[in-house]
Amino acid sequence: MRQFLMMLFLMVMIPYAATLAWTGRLDGGNFFGLEEVFGQTGGKKVIVKRNGREMEISLEDFLLYVVAKQIPAEYGCETIKAQAVLARTYLYREMNGADAVYEEALDLDVLSRAQMEKQWGSGNFSKNYGKIKEAVESTAGIVIFCDGELIEPFFCRAAAGCTRSLGGELPYLKQAESPGDREADGFLDLRTWTAGELADRIHSIPDSVPISAAALPNEIQIVERDGAGYVLKIQIGGKTYSGEEIQYALGLPSSCYSFLEFDGKIRTETKGIGHGYGFSQAGANALEREGHDYRDLLNYYFQGIEIKEGL
Hints:
The chain has ten helices and 14 strands. By secondary structure, it is an alpha+beta fold. A hairpin with a 2-residue loop joins strand 4 and strand 5 (149-150). The radius of gyration is 21 Å and the shape is globular. The model is unreliable at 9-31 and 33-41 (pLDDT under 50).
């Protein structure tokens, strides 16, 4: 189960992995570009090593840079607050009751001050930085539990109009309608392939079975989808692949895809950005405009949870 969960974290965003995945590393030099975050006392800490220097950073300060990386700063304040709670929940889970953790053990990506200024522009830096800082501070210490345990805080940029249910050990991951997903940039991804290009991509999958370009697209059959429309199994030639195997091979933004013949070629049509489990940022951003606060948003996308201060 742990291996499956880590796989999902690794597939959080394609092609947005650089901005939203739980994976990655910080840039070098001045760690955040804000020296005042160093040397804080009390509370949980993240220990960072850079240029031979070991620094203790307040977990709440560290969160600001995590959240800045994970969600567009132009999204609504309540949506960003919800993302801050998810990020904090992840950190608490990884710390497993400890008071401190090394950054390298977290497998997280953050946005340094220099990166913020580059991404947002110097004219928007102060506004966006203040917005994310307020989201972290106003939810300080708040995390998400289910049945007394911290949840696996899954999120994606946009589901395919409906989030996915996982069930089993993670009953809080429910299927929820999410029409606001369609507002996300890149929600609908259309790509056109020659049969040869598609065959080459399929052959790049480990243990793939050879397929001739002439057999495509006739030899493509989607065997199973889940309730939200994501491909679970797909047969190509004499082999059945998982939906994610084909997604990765083709570099698609999600596993909610279809194949169509188009002008003598093959078109892939993909909906959503990310794995589709848990919190949809774009969907939540649309719900916020209807007057919902961050607790409402989290309760909408997760079932049977408690949102409260951690231990």
